[in-house]
Amino acid sequence: xxxxxxxxxxxxxxxxxxxxxxxxEVARRYDVTAAALGYWAAAYRVHGAAGVRAxxxxxxxxxxxxxxxxxxxxxxxxxxxxxxxxxxxxxDIVGVWERKYEQGGIAALRHPFARxxxxxxxxxxxxxxxxxNDNRAREELLEELQxxxxxxxxxxxxxxxxxxxxxxxxxxGPKSCKS
Length: 179
Hints:
Among the domains are: 6-51; 62-130. It is flat, with a radius of gyration of 24 Å. The model is unreliable at 113-123 (pLDDT under 50). Helix 1 (6-17) runs antiparallel to helix 2 (23-30), helix 3 crosses helix 5 and helix 4 (62-75) packs across helix 5. It is an all-alpha fold and 179 residues long. It has helices spanning 6-17, 23-30, 34-47, 62-75, 79-85, 93-104, 123-130, 138-167.
């Protein structure tokens, strides 16, 4: 990945956030990638100038990674948004954490090469992180599931209706066959 000076990052971000030019144009003007500029803008909105400065390579504990994932899921944030909120340098790393978690749970979130001091977790702590803190009754959850299924069915029908309307020529009814 190409390194950009803090000055370039800050100037490009502020220029883009003024809103006078589109993201790609500002990125081209400062010779930076649009993806990097988008991330810097998101980080700047949350953390100010400190969010734009270059960060040192950092390793995160499994507890931190799990907290990031839980917040992302709870608030339905994108990888970029949650990386900006937690001031995480690499945008793609949250996706990596999510895939690792889906494949192997909290244990898969440990860094494979080094074990940082203070990050070792007991089995009890790991099991608490894996389970969502949801004490709702089974009946409530089944009701919510049914409601969500109805919403999905409704949206599918709405989408099919919209598609059918697009397929029909405008202003004409169904064609009749006259012999």
